[in-house]
Specification:
single chain, about 160 residues, alpha+beta, Yope Regulator, Chain: A, 6-stranded antiparallel sheet, about 40% helix, elongated
């Protein structure tokens, strides 16, 4: 792999990692993006995707909360996500306030460096671990639990 971090290197390293894990994935036509579903230890399943920003040489990994957050619940979920994000050292939750999409993001700036399987593994595992822990809390908030109580049940 070259050290210039071009799309082929970033995508190839990701594909090798996914194959090593035995995960099935799909490439999105015309976009440097790979998508797959993941089932966590919580028993919940969610969509994931890797996106490469070619011009900026950035590798981004996302786990998405299935579906979208209805407008009436966005404030409560946003409060929950802000509490979840506080003190998080790798990655963060984000919500599109226009359409209600919620996802957890980890990313790597690959300008001038080789993206390694170890870096991919560390960022994917941190991402999946955070989603597995906090997705049940998002669902609790959607079911009417206060954001504070949902966080307390996770971070006790």
């Amino acid at each position: 792999m070259s050290s210039d971090g071009d799309e082929d290197d970033l995508v190839a390293t990701t594909i090798a990692f996914l194959a090593e894990r035995g995960w099935s994935w799909e490439r999105v036509d015309g976009v440097p993006e790979l998508r797959f579903l993941f089932e966590g230890a919580s028993g919940l399943t969610w969509p994931c995707f890797v996106h490469v920003e070619v011009d900026d040489q950035q590798w981004l990994f996302f786990s998405e909360v299935p579906g979208v957050i209805p407008p009436r619940d966005r404030q409560a979920v946003m409060t929950f996500l802000t509490r979840a994000n506080f003190g998080m050292s790798i990655g963060n939750f984000e919500m599109d306030l226009d359409d209600g999409t919620v996802r957890f993001k980890t990313s790597i700036d690959a300008r001038g460096v080789a993206l390694t399987a170890g870096l991919v593994r560390n960022h994917v595992d941190a991402n999946l671990g955070a989603m597995d822990v906090y997705l049940p809390g998002v669902l609790e908030v959607l079911a009417g639990t206060s954001p504070e109580a949902a966080i307390a049940s996770i971070e006790h």
